[in-house]
Write a structure and sequence with these properties.
6 helices, 43% helix, five-stranded parallel sheet, binds 4'-phosphopantetheine, 19% strand, globular
């Protein structure tokens, strides 16, 4: 069984992430979407909130699971007996960092492959930080995030005003 791990901060999950999850689900037998710590970022949403948004947003996707892990991605992949890491690429600007991560992860365990999926061009401009910025100024993000995320963004940024 081909199990793919799709790791990220998902702070919050966007329609761009969902597009990758759906497409990865068509290619692999099982996709585990794993919320992990990115030491370069301070999340706006708690781990519980990010998990809840992911679980609700992937409801009905039969071969998709949501999980979390604190630690090295490559250790998690081994623990899950998986061999594939899936990453989305939006632009050339993503490439350098993702290339470095893929090489480091291969150095740590050469049996694990990182596979990149190009974003749907509809979502190439989307990122979790852009979503939070728009929402924090009261902008309309309805077409950019799944509805469970919209609820949380509204509660966090709009109802506070
Ligand atoms: O959505 P993000 O923030 O781009 O996801 C990055 C993430 C969480 C996948 C990355 O920071 C990560 O793999 N974190 C776990 C620690 C790790 O294994 N780092 C890579 C080797 S240094």
């Amino acid at each position: 069984m081909a199990i793919a791990i799709y790791p990220g901060s998902f702070d919050p999950v966007t329609n761009g992430h969902i597009d990758i999850i759906v497409r990865a689900g068509l290619v692999f037998d099982k996709v585990i979407v794993t919320v992990m710590d990115n030491p370069r970022k301070t999340p706006a949403f708690t781990l519980e909130e990010r998990l809840e948004m992911l679980v609700e947003s992937t409801k009905g996707m039969k071969n998709v699971e949501v999980d979390y892990y604190h630690g090295l991605l490559i250790d998690y992949v081994k623990q899950k007996k998986a061999k594939i890491i899936v990453k989305g690429l939006r632009a050339i600007s993503d490439f350098e960092f993702e290339f470095q991560m893929a090489l480091i992860n291969r150095k740590l365990n050469e049996e694990v492959e990182t596979m990149f999926m190009m974003t749907n061009n509809k979502y190439s401009y989307l990122s979790s930080s852009i979503i939070k910025e728009i929402a924090s100024y009261g902008g309309d993000v309805r077409k950019l995030v799944p509805s469970p995320v919209l609820k949380k963004l509204t509660a966090k940024y709009i109802q506070k005003e």
